């Protein structure tokens, strides 16, 4: 299927590796020029080269901390009028809520709620003016099925979901959609990092716990980031102009609900 977005321009945050990188790669394969972002310049440049070599499209790396006003300005200066915005950020660390300070909560809200809102605010009016825009927020399955040790993420990301639920109904009339893509257990670095903590606490080998977690999913495996990237590209397609304010869960069936 031709997704109808060839020649469009996209900003993809936190995209030097993992799910963000997969989204940038899938968009680039559709002919979208991508501006990618991460804090590590070396890793980001290597990813930019990989995407260019694989797709032949223009890839602009911007190595900044996008949670800061300066970082957001640099990113938007590199791509002032994006047609597509993919918000993404690594989640805050796991732990016990009793140990989290006010500063921990503020950092989580800035990274996982306020930064996406600031980038939406900076880009949505341009999308409305041109009568095309696709905004996808990569959040987490924890916004639908909270994970006890990820309370910081549960709270901040669910706050973003609530904001999107309201604003997305205001923009769709102008062919600007805002949706959330909720990853469950995929196989990027962060997933293994969290499992490593659990394995160490249980005194068990990491590989054994990884295999057990994969087998315990209804799909019998973890997700492939490429699957996630292609889902993101489809949400950004011309064909998805009638879908907004939705929460697309990709978890292999782990959430045991009807809705």
What does this structure look like?
- It contains 8 helices and 7 strands.
- The relative contact order is 0.15.
- The protein is of the alpha/beta class.
What labels would you give this structure?
47% helix, 259 residues, 7-stranded parallel β-sheet, alpha/beta
Summed up:
This protein is of the alpha/beta class and 259 residues long. Helix content is 47%, strand content 14%.
* Overall shape: globular
**What assembly state would you assign to the polypeptide chains in this entry?**
single chain
Low-confidence stretches: none
Please state the CA-atom Rg, rounded to the nearest Å.
18 Å
Which secondary structure elements does this structure contain, and how are they paired or packed?
Layout: E1 9-12, H1 18-29, E2 33-38, H2 41-55, E3 59-63, H3 69-78, E4 84-87, H4 102-130, E5 133-138, H5 151-171, E6 176-183, H6 189-202, H7 206-216, H8 225-235, E7 247-250
Parallel strand pairs: 1-2, 1-4, 2-3, 4-5, 5-6, 6-7
Helix pairs in contact: 1-2, 1-8, 4-5
């Amino acid at each position: 299927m031709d997704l109808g977005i060839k020649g469009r321009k996209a900003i993809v945050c936190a995209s030097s590796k993992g799910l963000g990188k997969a989204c940038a790669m899938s968009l680039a394969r559709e002919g979208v020029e991508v501006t990618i972002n991460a804090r590590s310049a070396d890793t980001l440049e290597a990813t930019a080269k990989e995407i260019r070599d694989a797709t032949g499209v223009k890839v602009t790396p911007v190595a900044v901390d996008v949670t800061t006003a300066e970082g957001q300005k640099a990113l938007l200066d590199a791509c002032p009028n994006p047609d597509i915005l993919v918000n993404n950020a690594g989640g805050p660390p796991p732990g016990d809520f009793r140990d989290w300070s006010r500063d921990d909560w503020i950092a989580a809200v800035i990274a996982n709620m306020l930064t996406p809102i600031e980038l939406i605010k900076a880009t949505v009016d341009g999308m409305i003016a041109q009568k095309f825009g696709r905004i996808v927020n990569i959040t987490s399955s924890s916004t639908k099925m909270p994970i006890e040790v990820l309370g910081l993420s549960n709270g901040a990301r669910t706050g973003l979901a609530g904001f999107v639920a309201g604003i997305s109904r205001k923009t769709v009339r102008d062919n600007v959609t805002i949706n959330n893509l909720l990853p469950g257990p995929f196989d990027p670095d962060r997933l293994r990092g969290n499992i490593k903590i659990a394995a160490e606490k249980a005194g068990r080998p990491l590989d054994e716990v990884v295999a057990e977690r994969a087998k315990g999913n209804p799909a019998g495996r973890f997700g492939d980031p490429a699957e996630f990237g292609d889902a993101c590209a489809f949400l950004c397609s011309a064909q998805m102009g009638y879908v907004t304010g939705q929460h697309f869960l990709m978890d292999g069936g782990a959430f045991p609900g009807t809705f």
